[in-house]
Input
Amino acid sequence: MRYCSNCVMPDTKPGVVLDERGYCNACRTKELKASIDWTARFEQLSELVAEIKAANNPFYDCIVAVSGGKDSWYQALILAERFGLKTLCVTLATHLPTTEGIANLNNMIKDLNVDHMKITLKPSVFREIRRRCFLRQGEPNWAEHCAMFASVVNTALIYDVPLVIWGEDIAFEFGGLQRQESKPSALAIDKNDLVKGKTIFDWLDDDISKRDVFFYQYPDYQKLKEAGIKSIYLGHYVKWDGRKHYNVVKERGFTGRVLGPLSGNYIDYDNIDEKLCEINIWFKYLKFGFWRSTDQCCYDIWNDRLSRDEAVDIVLRLSDEFPREYFHDFLRFHNLSEQEFWDTVAKFRNKTIWEQAGERWRMKYPVSKLSQSVVNQ
Output
Protein backbone atom coordinates (compact mmCIF):
# COMPACT_ATOMS: atom_id res chain seq x y z
CA MET A 1 0.00 0.00 0.00
CA ARG A 2 1.59 3.25 -1.18
CA TYR A 3 0.46 6.83 -0.80
CA CYS A 4 0.62 9.73 -3.21
CA SER A 5 3.58 11.99 -2.46
CA ASN A 6 1.52 15.10 -3.19
CA CYS A 7 -1.78 14.28 -1.47
CA VAL A 8 -2.79 11.42 0.86
CA MET A 9 -4.58 9.11 -1.57
CA PRO A 10 -3.46 5.46 -1.42
CA ASP A 11 -2.88 3.34 -4.51
CA THR A 12 -5.44 0.86 -3.16
CA LYS A 13 -8.17 3.07 -4.65
CA PRO A 14 -9.32 1.26 -7.81
CA GLY A 15 -7.70 2.77 -10.87
CA VAL A 16 -5.06 4.82 -9.04
CA VAL A 17 -1.56 4.55 -10.46
CA LEU A 18 1.35 6.47 -8.95
CA ASP A 19 3.79 7.91 -11.46
CA GLU A 20 7.58 8.16 -11.14
CA ARG A 21 7.17 11.19 -8.84
CA GLY A 22 4.71 9.33 -6.65
CA TYR A 23 1.79 11.44 -7.93
CA CYS A 24 -1.69 9.90 -8.16
CA ASN A 25 -4.18 10.30 -11.02
CA ALA A 26 -6.00 13.23 -9.42
CA CYS A 27 -2.78 15.13 -8.74
CA ARG A 28 -1.87 14.72 -12.40
CA THR A 29 -5.36 15.95 -13.25
CA LYS A 30 -4.67 19.05 -11.17
CA GLU A 31 -1.66 19.79 -13.37
CA LEU A 32 -3.71 19.19 -16.50
CA LYS A 33 -6.49 21.47 -15.31
CA ALA A 34 -3.97 24.27 -14.80
CA SER A 35 -3.22 24.16 -18.53
CA ILE A 36 -6.84 24.26 -19.67
CA ASP A 37 -8.21 27.46 -21.18
CA TRP A 38 -11.34 27.68 -19.04
CA THR A 39 -12.53 30.81 -20.81
CA ALA A 40 -12.57 28.91 -24.09
CA ARG A 41 -14.30 25.96 -22.44
CA PHE A 42 -17.02 28.25 -21.05
CA GLU A 43 -17.49 29.71 -24.51
CA GLN A 44 -18.07 26.19 -25.84
CA LEU A 45 -20.77 25.76 -23.20
CA SER A 46 -22.28 29.11 -24.20
CA GLU A 47 -22.46 27.95 -27.82
CA LEU A 48 -24.20 24.73 -26.79
CA VAL A 49 -26.70 26.72 -24.72
CA ALA A 50 -27.36 29.02 -27.68
CA GLU A 51 -28.20 25.98 -29.83
CA ILE A 52 -30.61 24.71 -27.18
CA LYS A 53 -32.33 28.08 -26.91
CA ALA A 54 -32.61 28.42 -30.68
CA ALA A 55 -34.56 25.16 -30.83
CA ASN A 56 -37.48 26.78 -28.97
CA ASN A 57 -38.27 23.65 -27.01
CA PRO A 58 -41.95 23.48 -26.02
CA PHE A 59 -41.36 22.64 -22.35
CA TYR A 60 -37.86 22.40 -20.87
CA ASP A 61 -34.41 23.20 -22.23
CA CYS A 62 -32.48 21.08 -19.75
CA ILE A 63 -32.66 18.78 -16.75
CA VAL A 64 -30.33 19.13 -13.79
CA ALA A 65 -30.13 16.28 -11.29
CA VAL A 66 -30.30 17.86 -7.82
CA SER A 67 -30.14 16.76 -4.22
CA GLY A 68 -30.06 20.22 -2.64
CA GLY A 69 -26.34 19.76 -2.00
CA LYS A 70 -23.80 22.46 -2.72
CA ASP A 71 -22.72 21.14 -6.13
CA SER A 72 -26.13 20.44 -7.66
CA TRP A 73 -27.42 23.80 -6.37
CA TYR A 74 -24.48 25.48 -8.11
CA GLN A 75 -25.13 23.52 -11.32
CA ALA A 76 -28.78 24.56 -11.41
CA LEU A 77 -27.78 28.14 -10.68
CA ILE A 78 -25.46 28.23 -13.70
CA LEU A 79 -28.05 26.81 -16.11
CA ALA A 80 -31.20 28.50 -14.84
CA GLU A 81 -29.84 31.87 -13.73
CA ARG A 82 -26.59 32.48 -15.56
CA PHE A 83 -27.82 31.11 -18.91
CA GLY A 84 -31.56 31.53 -18.46
CA LEU A 85 -32.48 28.04 -19.65
CA LYS A 86 -35.92 26.70 -18.79
CA THR A 87 -34.66 24.18 -16.24
CA LEU A 88 -36.35 21.14 -14.74
CA CYS A 89 -34.64 20.01 -11.55
CA VAL A 90 -35.03 16.29 -10.87
CA THR A 91 -34.39 14.63 -7.52
CA LEU A 92 -34.15 10.94 -6.76
CA ALA A 93 -35.86 11.08 -3.37
CA THR A 94 -33.92 9.97 -0.32
CA HIS A 95 -35.79 7.49 1.88
CA LEU A 96 -34.19 8.74 5.10
CA PRO A 97 -33.54 12.46 4.57
CA THR A 98 -31.90 14.65 7.18
CA THR A 99 -33.44 17.88 8.46
CA GLU A 100 -30.69 19.82 6.71
CA GLY A 101 -31.25 17.89 3.49
CA ILE A 102 -34.97 18.70 3.42
CA ALA A 103 -34.34 22.38 4.18
CA ASN A 104 -31.56 22.76 1.61
CA LEU A 105 -33.57 21.21 -1.20
CA ASN A 106 -36.58 23.41 -0.42
CA ASN A 107 -34.37 26.49 -0.17
CA MET A 108 -32.71 25.70 -3.50
CA ILE A 109 -36.05 25.45 -5.34
CA LYS A 110 -37.25 28.71 -3.81
CA ASP A 111 -33.95 30.47 -4.49
CA LEU A 112 -33.77 29.50 -8.16
CA ASN A 113 -37.54 29.58 -8.78
CA VAL A 114 -37.47 26.47 -10.96
CA ASP A 115 -39.79 23.53 -11.59
CA HIS A 116 -38.88 20.49 -9.55
CA MET A 117 -39.72 16.81 -9.95
CA LYS A 118 -39.07 14.23 -7.26
CA ILE A 119 -38.88 10.52 -8.14
CA THR A 120 -39.53 8.17 -5.23
CA LEU A 121 -38.60 4.55 -5.84
CA LYS A 122 -40.92 1.81 -4.61
CA PRO A 123 -39.76 1.46 -0.97
CA SER A 124 -39.96 -2.32 -0.64
CA VAL A 125 -37.95 -2.88 -3.84
CA PHE A 126 -35.42 -0.18 -3.03
CA ARG A 127 -34.87 -1.56 0.47
CA GLU A 128 -34.35 -5.10 -0.80
CA ILE A 129 -31.96 -4.09 -3.57
CA ARG A 130 -29.92 -2.00 -1.13
CA ARG A 131 -29.84 -4.90 1.31
CA ARG A 132 -28.52 -7.24 -1.39
CA CYS A 133 -25.93 -4.70 -2.52
CA PHE A 134 -24.76 -4.41 1.07
CA LEU A 135 -24.57 -8.12 1.85
CA ARG A 136 -23.12 -9.20 -1.51
CA GLN A 137 -20.95 -6.24 -2.51
CA GLY A 138 -20.48 -4.21 0.66
CA GLU A 139 -21.87 -1.22 -1.21
CA PRO A 140 -25.55 -0.51 -0.53
CA ASN A 141 -25.48 2.83 -2.34
CA TRP A 142 -24.96 1.07 -5.66
CA ALA A 143 -28.76 1.11 -5.87
CA GLU A 144 -28.89 4.93 -5.69
CA HIS A 145 -26.09 5.38 -8.19
CA CYS A 146 -27.80 3.11 -10.70
CA ALA A 147 -31.23 4.67 -10.19
CA MET A 148 -29.99 8.26 -10.22
CA PHE A 149 -28.38 8.01 -13.64
CA ALA A 150 -31.21 5.96 -15.13
CA SER A 151 -34.15 7.89 -13.67
CA VAL A 152 -32.88 11.32 -14.71
CA VAL A 153 -32.12 10.27 -18.30
CA ASN A 154 -35.41 8.40 -18.57
CA THR A 155 -37.16 11.59 -17.47
CA ALA A 156 -35.44 13.46 -20.30
CA LEU A 157 -36.80 10.89 -22.75
CA ILE A 158 -40.32 10.99 -21.34
CA TYR A 159 -40.55 14.79 -21.39
CA ASP A 160 -38.49 15.32 -24.55
CA VAL A 161 -35.81 17.42 -22.83
CA PRO A 162 -32.76 17.87 -25.10
CA LEU A 163 -30.02 18.41 -22.51
CA VAL A 164 -29.09 16.64 -19.26
CA ILE A 165 -26.53 18.29 -16.99
CA TRP A 166 -24.33 16.40 -14.55
CA GLY A 167 -21.62 17.80 -12.30
CA GLU A 168 -18.07 16.50 -12.42
CA ASP A 169 -16.67 13.45 -14.17
CA ILE A 170 -15.61 11.58 -11.04
CA ALA A 171 -12.90 9.45 -12.68
CA PHE A 172 -11.20 12.50 -14.19
CA GLU A 173 -11.72 14.83 -11.23
CA PHE A 174 -10.89 12.43 -8.39
CA GLY A 175 -8.79 9.76 -10.09
CA GLY A 176 -10.35 6.42 -11.00
CA LEU A 177 -10.75 3.60 -13.46
CA GLN A 178 -12.59 5.04 -16.40
CA ARG A 179 -10.87 8.14 -17.66
CA GLN A 180 -7.56 9.99 -17.70
CA GLU A 181 -8.76 13.00 -19.68
CA SER A 182 -11.73 15.32 -19.56
CA LYS A 183 -14.51 14.74 -22.06
CA PRO A 184 -17.76 16.69 -22.33
CA SER A 185 -20.19 13.85 -23.04
CA ALA A 186 -21.84 12.04 -20.14
CA LEU A 187 -23.96 9.84 -22.38
CA ALA A 188 -22.27 6.72 -20.96
CA ILE A 189 -22.49 7.86 -17.33
CA ASP A 190 -24.05 4.51 -16.50
CA LYS A 191 -20.63 2.96 -17.12
CA ASN A 192 -18.75 5.13 -14.64
CA ASP A 193 -16.78 3.96 -11.60
CA LEU A 194 -19.83 4.04 -9.31
CA VAL A 195 -21.80 1.49 -11.34
CA LYS A 196 -18.90 -0.94 -11.85
CA GLY A 197 -20.17 -2.51 -15.04
CA LYS A 198 -23.30 -3.96 -13.44
CA THR A 199 -26.99 -3.46 -14.17
CA ILE A 200 -30.08 -3.78 -12.02
CA PHE A 201 -30.62 -7.28 -13.42
CA ASP A 202 -27.54 -8.50 -11.57
CA TRP A 203 -29.51 -8.04 -8.33
CA LEU A 204 -32.92 -9.42 -9.24
CA ASP A 205 -34.34 -12.71 -8.05
CA ASP A 206 -37.82 -14.09 -8.61
CA ASP A 207 -39.24 -11.98 -5.77
CA ILE A 208 -38.69 -8.67 -7.62
CA SER A 209 -40.62 -8.01 -10.81
CA LYS A 210 -38.95 -6.40 -13.80
CA ARG A 211 -41.96 -4.08 -13.89
CA ASP A 212 -40.75 -2.57 -10.60
CA VAL A 213 -37.32 -1.47 -11.82
CA PHE A 214 -38.05 0.92 -14.69
CA PHE A 215 -36.19 3.80 -13.04
CA TYR A 216 -33.11 1.59 -12.53
CA GLN A 217 -32.79 0.82 -16.26
CA TYR A 218 -30.61 3.19 -18.27
CA PRO A 219 -31.98 3.87 -21.76
CA ASP A 220 -30.34 2.49 -24.87
CA TYR A 221 -27.67 4.86 -26.22
CA GLN A 222 -29.07 4.72 -29.74
CA LYS A 223 -32.50 5.64 -28.46
CA LEU A 224 -31.02 8.72 -26.75
CA LYS A 225 -29.19 9.74 -29.92
CA GLU A 226 -32.31 9.34 -32.03
CA ALA A 227 -34.22 11.50 -29.56
CA GLY A 228 -31.55 14.19 -29.83
CA ILE A 229 -30.72 14.10 -26.13
CA LYS A 230 -27.30 15.31 -25.09
CA SER A 231 -25.82 14.56 -21.68
CA ILE A 232 -22.82 16.58 -20.47
CA TYR A 233 -20.51 17.10 -17.52
CA LEU A 234 -20.59 20.74 -16.43
CA GLY A 235 -17.16 20.13 -14.93
CA HIS A 236 -15.72 19.84 -18.42
CA TYR A 237 -16.64 23.46 -19.13
CA VAL A 238 -16.36 25.04 -15.66
CA LYS A 239 -13.39 24.51 -13.35
CA TRP A 240 -14.79 22.34 -10.58
CA ASP A 241 -14.32 23.51 -6.99
CA GLY A 242 -16.68 22.16 -4.35
CA ARG A 243 -15.65 24.62 -1.65
CA LYS A 244 -16.24 27.52 -4.05
CA HIS A 245 -19.68 26.12 -4.77
CA TYR A 246 -20.37 25.93 -1.04
CA ASN A 247 -19.33 29.53 -0.50
CA VAL A 248 -21.63 30.67 -3.31
CA VAL A 249 -24.75 28.76 -2.26
CA LYS A 250 -24.44 29.32 1.48
CA GLU A 251 -25.13 32.98 0.73
CA ARG A 252 -28.36 31.87 -0.95
CA GLY A 253 -29.73 29.63 1.79
CA PHE A 254 -27.62 26.46 1.94
CA THR A 255 -26.72 25.37 5.47
CA GLY A 256 -24.16 22.87 6.70
CA ARG A 257 -24.81 20.24 9.34
CA VAL A 258 -26.09 21.98 12.47
CA LEU A 259 -24.25 19.64 14.85
CA GLY A 260 -20.95 19.93 12.97
CA PRO A 261 -19.05 17.33 10.95
CA LEU A 262 -20.19 13.73 11.01
CA SER A 263 -17.81 11.13 12.42
CA GLY A 264 -14.81 10.65 10.15
CA ASN A 265 -15.46 13.97 8.37
CA TYR A 266 -13.56 17.20 8.77
CA ILE A 267 -16.03 19.43 6.93
CA ASP A 268 -19.70 19.88 7.83
CA TYR A 269 -21.34 20.47 4.45
CA ASP A 270 -20.52 17.43 2.32
CA ASN A 271 -23.15 14.73 1.60
CA ILE A 272 -25.39 15.72 4.48
CA ASP A 273 -28.79 15.29 2.82
CA GLU A 274 -29.55 11.69 3.84
CA LYS A 275 -28.78 9.08 6.50
CA LEU A 276 -27.83 5.98 4.51
CA CYS A 277 -24.63 7.14 2.84
CA GLU A 278 -22.01 7.15 5.61
CA ILE A 279 -21.92 3.40 6.19
CA ASN A 280 -21.48 2.92 2.45
CA ILE A 281 -18.50 5.28 2.41
CA TRP A 282 -17.04 3.74 5.58
CA PHE A 283 -16.85 0.39 3.78
CA LYS A 284 -14.18 1.96 1.55
CA TYR A 285 -12.04 2.09 4.68
CA LEU A 286 -12.44 -1.66 5.15
CA LYS A 287 -11.72 -2.46 1.51
CA PHE A 288 -9.16 0.18 0.49
CA GLY A 289 -7.91 1.83 3.68
CA PHE A 290 -9.44 5.30 3.25
CA TRP A 291 -12.76 7.08 3.45
CA ARG A 292 -14.23 10.53 4.19
CA SER A 293 -11.29 12.34 5.78
CA THR A 294 -8.92 11.21 3.02
CA ASP A 295 -11.35 12.23 0.26
CA GLN A 296 -12.00 15.63 1.85
CA CYS A 297 -8.34 16.37 2.61
CA CYS A 298 -7.24 15.38 -0.88
CA TYR A 299 -9.83 17.67 -2.38
CA ASP A 300 -8.48 20.60 -0.40
CA ILE A 301 -4.90 19.71 -1.35
CA TRP A 302 -5.86 19.59 -5.03
CA ASN A 303 -7.33 23.08 -4.66
CA ASP A 304 -4.32 24.48 -2.75
CA ARG A 305 -6.16 24.91 0.55
CA LEU A 306 -4.30 22.34 2.62
CA SER A 307 -0.77 21.01 2.87
CA ARG A 308 0.03 17.32 2.78
CA ASP A 309 1.39 17.40 6.34
CA GLU A 310 -1.80 19.04 7.59
CA ALA A 311 -3.83 16.40 5.75
CA VAL A 312 -1.84 13.56 7.33
CA ASP A 313 -2.65 14.87 10.81
CA ILE A 314 -6.36 15.11 9.97
CA VAL A 315 -6.54 11.66 8.38
CA LEU A 316 -4.75 10.00 11.30
CA ARG A 317 -7.09 11.75 13.73
CA LEU A 318 -10.38 10.99 12.00
CA SER A 319 -10.10 7.82 9.94
CA ASP A 320 -10.74 5.40 12.80
CA GLU A 321 -13.99 7.09 13.78
CA PHE A 322 -17.03 4.90 13.13
CA PRO A 323 -20.07 6.56 11.47
CA ARG A 324 -22.23 6.10 14.54
CA GLU A 325 -24.76 8.90 13.97
CA TYR A 326 -27.12 6.97 11.68
CA PHE A 327 -25.96 3.43 12.39
CA HIS A 328 -29.23 2.22 13.90
CA ASP A 329 -31.23 3.96 11.18
CA PHE A 330 -29.15 1.98 8.69
CA LEU A 331 -29.86 -1.31 10.45
CA ARG A 332 -33.60 -0.68 10.71
CA PHE A 333 -33.95 0.42 7.10
CA HIS A 334 -32.23 -2.70 5.76
CA ASN A 335 -33.80 -5.11 8.25
CA LEU A 336 -30.35 -6.07 9.53
CA SER A 337 -29.29 -7.30 12.92
CA GLU A 338 -26.07 -6.01 14.43
CA GLN A 339 -24.62 -9.51 14.03
CA GLU A 340 -25.42 -9.50 10.32
CA PHE A 341 -23.82 -6.09 9.99
CA TRP A 342 -20.57 -7.04 11.73
CA ASP A 343 -20.42 -10.36 9.86
CA THR A 344 -20.55 -8.33 6.64
CA VAL A 345 -17.81 -6.04 7.94
CA ALA A 346 -15.62 -9.10 8.55
CA LYS A 347 -16.40 -10.41 5.07
CA PHE A 348 -15.22 -7.25 3.31
CA ARG A 349 -12.30 -6.25 5.53
CA ASN A 350 -9.17 -6.39 3.37
CA LYS A 351 -6.68 -8.47 5.40
CA THR A 352 -3.77 -7.39 3.20
CA ILE A 353 -3.97 -3.87 4.65
CA TRP A 354 -5.51 -4.59 8.08
CA GLU A 355 -4.13 -6.49 11.05
CA GLN A 356 -5.65 -7.46 14.35
CA ALA A 357 -4.05 -6.15 17.55
CA GLY A 358 -5.80 -7.76 20.50
CA GLU A 359 -9.51 -7.13 20.09
CA ARG A 360 -9.19 -4.24 17.66
CA TRP A 361 -8.18 -3.90 14.04
CA ARG A 362 -5.62 -1.40 12.79
CA MET A 363 -4.15 -0.37 9.48
CA LYS A 364 -0.87 -2.04 8.61
CA TYR A 365 0.30 0.92 6.55
CA PRO A 366 -1.10 4.21 7.91
CA VAL A 367 -0.34 7.38 5.99
CA SER A 368 2.68 9.35 7.21
CA LYS A 369 4.49 12.58 6.54
CA LEU A 370 7.20 12.43 3.95
CA SER A 371 9.65 13.85 6.46
CA GLN A 372 8.97 10.90 8.78
CA SER A 373 9.15 7.97 6.37
CA VAL A 374 9.38 7.01 2.74
CA VAL A 375 6.22 6.94 0.66
CA ASN A 376 6.63 3.29 -0.31
CA GLN A 377 5.54 0.88 2.39
In short: The mean pLDDT is 94.
